[in-house]
Amino acid sequence: MPRDDWHMDESKIRKGMLMRQTRPWTACFFIVTLISSMVDHAQNQPPPLPLKIEKLKDDLYVVTGDAGNTTVYVTEEGLVLVDDKFERNYDDLMSKVRSVTDKPVKYVINTHAHGDHTGSNAKVPPTALIIGHENARAAMVKGKQAAPPSLTYTERIAIRIGGKDVIAFHPGRCHTDGDTFVYFPALKVMSTGDCYNTANGQGVNFTNSPTFSLYTDYNTGGSFVAWEKTADEVLKFDFDTVVPGHGPVAKRDQMLKWRADMDAIQKRVRSMVREGKSKEDVQKMLVTEFGWDPKGRATLSSVDGMMNELRY
Ligand SMILES: [Zn+2]
After folding, report:
1. 248 Cβ partners below 8 Å, 6+ apart?
2. pLDDT value at position 179?
3. Separation of 266 CA from ligand 1 center, angstroms?
4. What is the whole-number distance in angstroms between the Cα of residue 77 and the centre of ligand 1?
């Protein structure tokens, strides 16, 4: 999503590469520019958007508004949170949680490594156990992100708390190579992280496209081709309600439409690659035929990788 931490890291890396290629005085200039741009960035950083808590089913809530969605599951023994937004959202997030329950946070499940889903890991009480896929942990360690998961798994991990079940599982690659889906069997609810979004990072989906924010992070092991198989594994579960990584809560039918559009995109891009069409042609097609945002990260950053994958 546009305000992910790793996005800022990427621009710093690019600036660092520039510095290595220049003479010392030019490097000094870049350092001054870099420092002032970092100060500007801090000063110009928009304040976090206010959060909202919404009840989905008995004992299950979603906190929306800024960064990734947070799912909150209330049990007699404590809370399970799925994702915890940016660090800057922590106080507002906890005040929204405290408006519905005074139970302690027992588990935080990170759906993937990106900072808009894991940023408050460093602030959650030490009594809470942070869980994530082993590849998500590896990406967070590599990115020097604070408080990566202390408990990792590879295929599936089940939590039994307060007489209730929560199943976290990794059906394959999609948005990254360390994505976790979280299933609440008693309530038939699925939290998906960024493998399924109904809006971009700011909650916007002006074309109402099911695949508006289908962003594949190739730098973190994501795959557009693997995404379909992953989606099919997820759709084998019995659920009626979906908490996406970003955007409004959805029904299973919307996810089925998204799955069908993904298939259509794959066929369309594959044939365009065979016809020798350019990246710009594919970007234009995604905007006009599938309602993608011309300035969205999915359109700007995923298309090279998609074309490479669909070349064969
Ligand atoms: Zn993400």
Report:
1. 64, 198, 199, 203
2. 98
3. 21
4. 30
Assess whether 212 and 115 both reside in one domain: yes
Q: How far is the CA of 54 from the centre of ligand 1 (A)?
A: 22
Which residues neighbour ligand 1 (ion) by CB within 5 Å? 114, 194
- How far is it, in rounded angstroms, from Cα 20 to Cα 238? 54
Distance between CA 240 and CA 168 in Å, rounded?
A: 17
Considering the domain architecture, whether residues 195 and 120 belong to the same structural domain is answered as yes
For residue 2, pLDDT beyond 70? no
CATH classification at residue 134: 3.60.15.10
Record the tokens describing residue 266, joined without a space. 């794959």
Each residue of 117-175: pLDDT tens digit?
999 999 999 889 999 999 999 999 999 999 999 999 999 999 999 999 999 999 999 99
Query: How many distinct structural domains can be found in the chain?
Result: 3
Residue where a domain terminates, one of 251, 274, 299: 251
- Which pTM was predicted? 0.86
Residue in this structure with the two tokens 């808590």, named with its chain if needed: 53
* 220-251 pLDDT per residue, tens: 999 999 999 999 999 999 999 999 999 999 99
DSSP per position, 80-136: EEE----GGGHHHHHHHHHTT--PPEEEEE-SSS-HHHHGGGGTS-TTSEEEEEHHH
Tell me the residue range of the domain where 302 lies.
Answer: 262-309
Residue 42 confidence (pLDDT) above 60: no
Distance 114 CA to ligand 1 centre (A): 5
My answer on whether 162 and 283 are in the same domain is no
Average pLDDT over residues 87-94: 97
- Please check the confidence at residue 10 and state whether its pLDDT lies above 70: no
For ligand 1, the distance from its centroid to the CA atom of residue 112, given in whole angstroms, is: 7
Residues 295 and 181 in one domain: no
User: Cα of 30 to ligand 1 centre, how many Å?
Assistant: 30
